[in-house]
Amino acid sequence: MSIDHGWWQQARPVVSPNQDARPRDEVSLLVLHSISLPPGVFSGDGVEALFTNRLDPQAHAYFAAIHHLRVSAHLLIRRDGECVQFVPFSARAWHAGRSCWRDGQRWRRALNDFSVGIELEGDEVTPYTAAQYRCLVSATRALLAGYPQLTPARITGHAHVAPLRKSDPGPAFDWAYFRQSLAKPLPGE
Predict the structure, then answer these.
(1) What is the pLDDT of residue 94?
(2) Could you tell me if 30 and 156 are in contact, meaning their C-beta atoms sit under 8 angstroms apart?
(3) Cα 75 to the chain's mean position, in Å?
(4) What gap in Å lies between CA 173 and CA 7, rounded to an integer?
(5) Which of 43, 124, 129, 168 has fewest C-beta within 10 Å?
(6) Helix, strand, or coil (residue 110)
(7) Backbone angles phi, psi at 76, to 5 degrees
């Protein structure tokens, strides 16, 4: 599936207000995350509500502490493999926070300026589903085809770019399986 005007055709669009223009026309890093709202609970509309500033602080005690956050990601991949897109890849999503990336011989900050953020519905200890890996591989392939500066070596986890703050997608994410799957054709290709 291809990318059309920054939107992946395989994803269900839900526009987040938590985005702005990229300062340069550069997409050269993919950052993988995990999220579940409330923590450890999969399904429901908590993530969509958070990314669209509609999270009800009364719905769960955890929501009261985070409903004010203005965050987003480009994609959310749910447990069943459904993909939701909140921000076009041509725009800056607010996902990486304070972070840094060693890009060749230099350190770069403000990673949202040039990265794509993909959230996997899950937590750091529960294995991700086969459907999520299939969708992630498909989305990653579309991104690699659409953005030549992005390469498999420029795919990382939130924990790698913000190691003292974040630990996602966590030990439950099978990097070797993901990279092997990315390297071989999907069924039907």
Answers:
(1) 98
(2) yes
(3) 5
(4) 25
(5) 43
(6) coil
(7) -125, 125
**One-letter amino acid identity for 159?**
A
Residues 6+ apart with CB under 8 A from 91: 6, 19, 20, 21, 22
In the chain, where do the E strands start and end? 3-4, 7-8, 12-13, 19-21, 29-35, 75-77, 83-85, 91-93, 101-103, 106-108, 115-121, 155-157
Average pLDDT per block of 10 residues along the chain, 189 residues long? 90 98 96 97 96 97 97 98 98 96 94 98 96 97 96 97 93 98 77
Find the farthest-apart pair of alpha carbons in the chain and give their distance in angstroms, rounded: 47
CB 135 within 8 A of CB 70: no
Active site residue 82: no
Active-site pick, 26, 48, 82, 119 = 119
- Side chain identity at 64, as an amino acid letter? A
Give one word for 116, left, alpha or beta, with left for phi > 0 and alpha for psi -120 to 50.
beta
CB 120 within 8 A of CB 33: yes
Handedness of CA 159, 127, 119, 145 (dihedral sign): positive
Q: 77 - beta bridge partners?
A: 83, 120
Q: Show the tokens assigned to 17.
A: 């207000």
Distance CA 9, CA 167 (A): 30
Rg of the chain over CA atoms, in angstroms?
16
